[in-house]
Write a structure and sequence with these properties.
Length: 47
């Protein structure tokens, strides 16, 4: 089982690989499949 992520807008819970997209510049994009809420350029510990 993969870790889950909870949407800060609608509280929808989804597995991490369904809602997070890694970019080549080490940033991450989150997009909720339920309400379409999106956060871009989430910095990671490597970025």
């Amino acid at each position: 089982m993969l870790p889950t992520v909870k949407c800060p807008k609608c509280s929808y819970i989804a597995e991490m690989d369904h809602v997070l997209t890694a970019q080549s510049n080490q940033n991450v994009i989150y997009k909720c499949p339920q309400c379409q809420y999106e956060v871009r350029n989430i910095h990671t510990s490597k970025g």
